[in-house]
Amino acid sequence: MKKILIGTHNKGKFKEIAYLLSKKLQKISPLKLKIKSPKETGKTFNSNSKLKVNFFSKYVRYPVISDDSGLCIRAFNNKPGIYSARLAKKHGSFLKAMKFILKKMKKKKNRSATFVCSLSFKDNKKKIITAEGKLYGKISDKISGKNGFGYDPIFIPSNYKITFGQMKKSKKIKMDHRFIAFGKLKKKVKIL
Fold it and tell me: Is the pLDDT of residue 76 over 80?
């Protein structure tokens, strides 16, 4: 069975990417191999996902897939964006970061937001292939739902009345930004 390293320490992301990948691939976590996460020094989702895939591929001799994703809020000049996870870390948790966002959004008329995911794949030939997925929606008025992870409980995708946090995982996983990016990447990388 061919192996693939899913370059993330985020358990929610690992599960989603593992679900999208072919059943023929054995999914390996960097946690299992005791590999730390690299410093995210990129200025875009694409540069960070490439940086991660490059970093993790130094440790293994089989393909690696990594993602960088985040929530871009129009009223905050598309922030937190690439700093989405770091905002949660700064506030102590995603729950506290969501409360902080909702408090700041109170006076904002425009609640539109975009979830962005950049997925990068690197195989033994050392060529990096990247694809980006975007999902448009808006920020909810309150934290709703216990499903998903990260900012899912405050994001309502376009044409829906409920947050990702309220949505069944099986539905969310087949429509979110990671799914869109993966669909594009799969067209370029046959083994996925």
Answer: yes
Q: What is the pLDDT of residues 145-176, one digit of tens each?
A: 999 999 999 999 999 999 999 999 999 999 99
Distance from C-alpha of 165 to C-alpha of 151, rounded to nearest angstrom: 8
Q: Is the peptide bond before 157 cis (omega within 30 degrees of 0)?
A: no
Query: For the whole model, what pTM was predicted?
Result: 0.95
Angle at 135 between CA 131 and CA 139, to 5 degrees: 140
pLDDT of the residue at 61: 93
Separation of alpha carbons 154 and 80, rounded Å: 14
The catalytic residues are 68
- Distances in Å between the Cα of 88 and the Cα atoms of 71, 95, 100, 149, 184 are 12, 8, 10, 12, 29
- Tens digits of residue pLDDT in 90-112: 999 999 999 999 999 998 999 99
Residues 124 and 61 sit within 8 Å (Cβ to Cβ): yes
Give the number of residues written for the chain. Answer: 192
Q: State the average pLDDT for the chain.
A: 96
Could you tell me if residue 160 is left (phi over 0), alpha (psi between -120 and 50 degrees) or otherwise beta?
beta
Q: Which residues are within 8 A (CB) of 181 and not within 5 positions of it... i.e. 6 or more apart?
A: 67, 117, 118, 119, 131, 132, 133
